[in-house]
Amino acid sequence: MSTTSSLRFLGALLLTLTASASAGTLRVGATPVPAGELLEFVRPALAKQGVTLVVREFSDYVQPNVALGEGSLDANLFQHQPYLDAFQQNRPLNIVPVRKVYLPPLGLYSKRVTEVTALKKGATVAIPNDPSNGARALLLLERAGLIRLKAGVGARANVTDIVSNVRNLRFRELEAAQLPRSLADVDAAIVNTNYALEVGLNPTRDAIFREGKNSAYVNILATTRDKLNNPDLQKLAQALTSPEAKAWLLKKYGGSIVPAF
User: 208-232 b/e with 16+ CB inside 10 Å = b?
Assistant: First the structure.
């Protein structure tokens, strides 16, 4: 093969490799609602750009990060930054945020009372048992006027940081996915919105107290550092935060999911 032919061959090969790297398949892990549904919404827009989106749904908050760290996923959408930070303290997987997408407001729900002030002394309240969402739940209870936390604990709060509990509330710490089912057995439960929506609970309509729109717990699209500049991933980030995605979120969830863009 001549030098000229070799150069042409190498040039064609380089173009082929570049094209395959910039327009291919993205494997994204997500909880079913709202992340999975939002990803399905943007799938056609990505297909028009030559990107095949493969969505893998999870029912917990651990395996989506494990799969991303092990390389069987290219990205995930289910968590907020405080959760990711807490997760990687014990299991560093080099996962980084790509883009803020939406806020699913944390809500306090009850089948026994219709307002916070109706909770009786000694009532049992179920909260998430993972550190970041447990702290988030306690901060919500503090804003509701039910407890007071040690000054400065913030996103590191746990039940031992409660310094005032005038109603003598008792706390039951459960896996986040179990909290909707716990409502039959406790006086109230703090439920993440993705799990609330799965059982027909709407934080705007059904929660007796919920987070405001300025919450720091916005859900993020995340990936590993080595994939951060993947052009296909950037196309996904743009699609998830497009005007069309914003309009869809507001219409689909009636304000219970707040766009963060």
Answer: bbbbeeebebbbbbbbbeebeebeb
- Tokens standing for residue 214: 């300025």
Nearest CA-CA partner of 216 in 174, 172, 258, 173: 258
Adjacent-strand bridge partners of 55: 28
> Quick check: do 24-105+217-259 and 107-210 share a fold?
yes
DSSP code at position 19: H
In this prediction, residue 23 carries a pLDDT of 58
* pLDDT score at 212: 86
Q: Where are the domains of the chain?
A: 24-105+217-259, 107-210
Return the higher-pLDDT residue of 22 and 63.
63
- Bond prior to 34 in cis (omega within 30° of 0): yes
Q: What's the CATH number for 107-210?
A: 3.40.190.10
pLDDT digits (tens, 9 = 90+) for 86-109: 999 999 999 999 999 999 999 999
Q: pLDDT tens digits, residue range 166-187? A: 999 999 999 999 999 999 999 9
CATH architecture of 24-105+217-259: 3-Layer(aba) Sandwich (3.40)
pTM above 0.85, yes or no: no
* CA-to-CA separations, 227 to 86, 159, 194, in angstroms, rounded: 21, 38, 26
